[in-house]
Amino acid sequence: MSNRVLSGFLISIIFLVCAASRSEAEGSKEIYVTTHNTSLYMCNDFVGKCNVPAANGDRSQFAIYGCNEVDRLYFVKLHLSEVIYLGFSGSNAGNNNHIVFEIKNLAGSVVYPETTLPAAGTGFIANIAQARVGPNQIYTTGGYSAIDFHPADTGMYYIEFTKKNVSNTVVTGNFNIDLIDVTVYDTVALQVEPGRLYSKSWQFQEAGGTGGGGCSAKTYVYSNDSIITSCTFNNLGGGVWVQYCNQYGCANTGNFAADRKSLYHQQALLPEFRIFLNLPDQVLFPPATVLGAIVAPFPWGDRNCLTGHILFHVNVNKPGKVTILLTFGSGYISRTLTITNAVVGENTFDWDGLDGAGSVVPNNTSITFTVSYINGLTNLPLYDVETNTNGFTISLESPTGAQVTSFWDDTNIIGPPVGTNNSVTGCATPPCHSWPNNWGNLNTINTWWYNVSSSMTQPPIFEFRNPQALVFQQSPPQNFCENTSGHVFSVATDPNTDIYHWSYTPATGVTLVPSGNSVTVSFGPGAVSGVLSVYGTNTNCATQGPTSTLAITINPAPLPVILGPSSVCVGTIGSSYVTQTGMLSYNWTISAGGIITSGGNTSNAHVNWNTAGANTISVTYTNTNGCAATSPVSYPV
Fold it and tell me: Could you write out the DSSP letters of every residue in 406-454?
């Protein structure tokens, strides 16, 4: 053997020894930390959801035959030279029952036929120490003899479990996968490929009791914008619980301020992001290398006078989440707009013209808007996790950066103690968001975090909104008499109107004196029934507001005419004066030079004149429409 060949042989031996000393198994090694015994809880009850006793909450069908996509347990083969080594240990199947598993490809075809979970020999992991070492096919000693799954094709696969009886019939209920290892190994490169095993909703159970304890696993969350954060549990005591993450919170209504709130005695299950037990494989799941930013042209808004809407435009350089905080000043509640899945380039927000309380924001209101671009928005809603006295440690793994700030809003939790709200300042120094023993029982407690890539406050934009329909404060019918004045009409104040435009049709004999949202009207001689109209305008919008009208009926006044002698002599007795007939009432008056002898409330009057000079007789009468007229006439005596 040449020295060169010998040298190469020794290098290979050294490499194999080093490889054997590495512990790159993937599964229980990551979730069963020191003596904190955490296993996988399985429930194949698609109807009752293993909710026994009642009101304990539904269990998920994580990694069960026929489960939903979000509940699957995936692993990936990238190269043809890769083999997957598998090992398990199961329990709690019940007397005379056994646990089985199979493997499918993404098309749903079975590529590894149903096999009983081993209780000894190949594929059986006897203890956590073996699970932490991994397959003996790689590490020679100290591990376990793994099942060798070598599919012909590369791609994504998922493993499913259920339990059956001796007749090979499915038995509904729960069971456990106490130990699991899914190791992807490249037989050419002679290296383990971690970061290939993931689910969107892992379902865990802590052993508790002597030698047990809460969960102290560290998991890695791969958000939709490729941000990777890690979540380290610190002896979390949840019994049976599901870890899932999403960008929404406990609901997905589009109102993040409400959706992110923890829920009192309610369960939420909205898995979305992939969750890994190691850093995700960088080839299959490329991590973000930089955080995104708001880019030019910088945010602006297009205003619509007709609707009062503003269409905001925001440009970003990578996918993420964009929020716009609108503040309106005194009297109006701030409003936050959100685009959860902002795309590269231009994104638009259609603001409906309402503040945070649903009130209409009127024309010419100054609006300050602050735009924030967020990467990696991640919510961690945990249902029925009774105890978390040590809180979480959330870290930004990729891109590398400062410590992540965690937030929560537990004000829905009535306690005791009553839940707190830390949705503004957050917690930047972990561990964060702890809660006392049994406080999380039957509640969904949500924690969220994100990275704000950039934030900018833009110069104020003024709301543009057309004047609205004006509402008269007088109710029809409106009836008035000819030759009357001082009638005041008004409409309710419209905050979108700068100038109120009043008119009366037909205008003959009518005088209007406007004063803002009111007008004083006089109906002089010749005035007839018509319509009082008003509309508004403002300086921002070219279109006038709609015209509002009020119908008015004008009743004619009696004619001021008196018929009688134009002159009489002093001492004349019984001078007679006549005016219009058919009136409702008459009120005759004369000056001091005479005395009415008869006709006080009739259409004619008799007068005895006893003083010479210019004397006056007049009558005020009211017609059948209630309109009055006074007819003064002077007579020389």
Answer: EEEE-TT---SSPPPEEEEEEE-SSSB--B-TTTTTT-EEEEEEEEEEE
Q: What is the pLDDT of residues 395-406, one digit of tens each?
A: 999 998 767 899
Residue the block writes with tokens 């945010």: 299
Q: DSSP secondary-structure letter at 160?
A: E
As a whole number of angstroms, the distance between CA 513 and CA 118 comes to 98
**442-491 per-position pLDDT tens digit:** 999 999 998 877 889 999 999 999 999 999 999 988 999 999 999 999 99
* R_g over Cα of the chain: 44
Q: How many CA atoms lie within 13 A of 551 on its CB side?
A: 3
pLDDT(12) > 50: no
pLDDT, residue 212, reads 58
* Closest C-alpha to 60, from 208, 265, 200: 200
Cα(366)–Cα(462) distance, integer angstroms? 5
Tell me the pLDDT of the chain averaged across its residues. 90
**Segment holding 14, helix H or strand E:** helix 3-21
Q: 75 near 159, Cβ under 8 Å?
A: yes
List 420's β-bridge partners, or say none: none
Token output for 538: 């403002």
- C-alpha dihedral over 560, 564, 567, 568, to 10 degrees? -140
If you count them, how many residues does the chain have?
637
The CA-based angle 41-44-46, given to 5 degrees, is: 125
Q: In b/e form, how buried is each residue of 435-470, taking b as 16+ CB within 10 angstroms?
A: beeebbebbbbbbbbbbbbbeeebeebebbbbbbeb
CA distance 637 to 616: 10
User: How far apart (Å, rounded) are the C-alpha atoms in residues 365 and 330?
Assistant: 10
Q: Are 88 and 118 in contact (CB under 8 A)?
A: yes
- H or E element, residue 19: helix 3-21
Q: What is the pLDDT of residues 251-270, one digit of tens each?
A: 999 888 899 999 999 999 99
Give the separation between CA 182 and CA 101, rounded to whole angstroms.
Answer: 13
E strand or H helix that includes residue 29: helix 28-31
Residue among 513, 508, 505 nearest 482 (CA): 508
Q: What confidence tens digit (pLDDT) does each residue in 45-82 have?
A: 999 999 977 667 899 999 999 999 999 999 999 999 99
Question: Rounded distance, CA 526 to CA 278, Å?
Answer: 93
Pairing verdict, β 198-199 and 274-276: antiparallel
